[in-house]
Amino acid sequence: MTKKERFAFVLKYFEEQAPNAETELIYDNPYQLLVAVILSAQCTDKRVNMTTPAIFQAYPDVAALSHATFDDLFPLIRSISYPNNKTKHLIGMAQMVVEDFNGEIPATVDQLVKLPGVGRKTANVITSVVHQQPNMAVDTHVFRVSARIGLTTNATTPLQTEKQLLKYIPTEKVHIAHHWLILHGRYICVARSPKCEECGLRPVCKYYHSLVRGN
């Protein structure tokens, strides 16, 4: 099977099984999504969704957050992983958005990565989810699932994975393919003991054929 054929099978499967896949983070606007994605680094979406309501109540917009103090914001983030750094990042992000971007959340990857706490993955999430730009955010789930299935070959970094996926996924499907791969990794192709018997991608999955079936 060629890589093109494998991609075609995977995309068709997800289109049929999860045509409306979307982020599990709860948000109402780009500001809220950016805060949630920054908090989600090495933390579950479930925990983030439990934490953000209090943050958004106290700081309803980026201007309000830009005036937050560490001592006021930290208690709201205490239950999140790396709360010290993320508290500083959120305040710094808000201040830069207000000062350098007229209070508007940037809409390009190049601008977003200038913000504290925002790396390429976060920037790709924001531009993909909010603006449906063809940017592929590669987190641990996307990285693992892509390699296991055989969508990527010898990709050792998130950027290499991103480039290989973008080569074969049609531009108009990139924004939703990001969610397909994340959700598949979160619930089926989990890190330990992947649920291969529940997976509809078995016919084309390299991991299943090489390690599970032994051929």
From TrEMBL:
Entry's cofactor comment: Binds 1 [4Fe-4S] cluster.
Reactions catalysed, as given in the entry: 2'-deoxyribonucleotide-(2'-deoxyribose 5'-phosphate)-2'-deoxyribonucleotide-DNA = a 3'-end 2'-deoxyribonucleotide-(2,3-dehydro-2,3-deoxyribose 5'-phosphate)-DNA + a 5'-end 5'-phospho-2'-deoxyribonucleoside-DNA + H(+)
Membrane spanning stretches: none
Statement: the UniProt record of this protein carries the keyword Hydrolase: yes
InterPro entries (UniProt xref): DNA_glycosylase, Endonuclease3_FeS-loop_motif, Endouclease-III_FeS-bd_BS, HhH-GPD_domain, HhH_base_excis_C, HhH_motif, Nth
GO molecular function, one term: DNA binding
Top-level taxon of the source organism: Bacteria
Name of the protein this chain belongs to: Endonuclease III
Gene: nth
